[in-house]
Amino acid sequence: MKAKSDFPSINERQPEGISAEGKAYRVLIVDDSMFVAKQISQILTSEGFEIVDTAYDGEEAVEKYKELYPRIDLVTMDITMPKMDGVTSLEKILEFDNEARVIMISALGKQDLVKKSLMIGAKNYIVKPLDRKKVLERIVMVLKQRS
Length: 147
Fold this sequence. Notes:
Layout: E1 26-30, H1 34-45, E2 50-55, H2 58-68, E3 74-78, H3 86-96, E4 102-106, H4 111-120, E5 124-127, H5 132-146
Parallel strand pairs: 1-2, 1-3, 3-4, 4-5
Helix pairs in contact: 2-3
């Protein structure tokens, strides 16, 4: 049987989700839409990221962040959710860990909430519908800022 080494790749590159130390970046996905959460998860896992958990509202996001801390590198946070919205959840996560890296995910027309989130401390934002290239670009940019 042939091994992977028998097929050299002309496009050999490090997956975006792997740090310089060779470890997968760990991500918490927060979105009340199971479809969007799955979409983000598929985009990230295809590049080697590790999805450590998924939360479906802001309250759950804060609880899970505290449970996973410090074994978490990034949070993708939907802005509009039941129980607790993404902006409030962002504030609570930053109160707990002011180094937290959170990227807001927003539908079109939510620019005011995106601006508020960035002023509070979100590191970047992504607009729905999700574009694979933009999702990876923004997430990698935020992760590399610290490295």
